[in-house]
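Appendix C: a fully annotated inverse folding record. The material below is reproduced so that readers can follow the format used throughout the book. The structure is listed first as tokens, followed by the designed sequence.
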């Protein structure tokens, strides 16, 4: 979609979010690929970029992609046996989401903490 066409703003935003979701799925596969072929530096570099992008999603309260992206990132850290990164990411989410009235989000955060053994 182009910015000058006849689609509504909501349609354009939905298309962007769908594309971003596909990128996150692709990045997951790419990190797993790098790990399988013995290139942990490339995997960690991509994980670092994903962490930065998650922070940007965290700042957008209208983003529906934040929680699926957080789950992907935490899953990859778990697969890579990086418990310190899991704790760091969950603490970052809690610090930013805990300040707001998003009760549903706090429920999702609690589920992620339980899943990764942090209560």
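Designed amino acids, in order:
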């Amino acid at each position: 979609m182009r910015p000058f066409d006849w689609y509504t703003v909501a349609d354009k935003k939905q298309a962007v979010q769908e594309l971003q979701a596909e990128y996150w799925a692709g990045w997951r596969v790419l990190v797993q690929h790098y790990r399988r072929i013995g290139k942990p530096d490339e995997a960690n570099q991509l994980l670092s970029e994903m962490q930065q992008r998650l922070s940007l999603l965290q700042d957008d309260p209208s983003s529906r992609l934040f929680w699926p992206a957080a789950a992907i990132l935490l899953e990859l850290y778990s697969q890579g046996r990086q418990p310190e990164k899991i704790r760091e990411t969950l603490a970052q989410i809690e610090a930013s989401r805990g300040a707001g009235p998003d009760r549903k989000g706090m429920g999702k955060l609690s589920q992620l903490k339980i899943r990764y053994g942090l209560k």
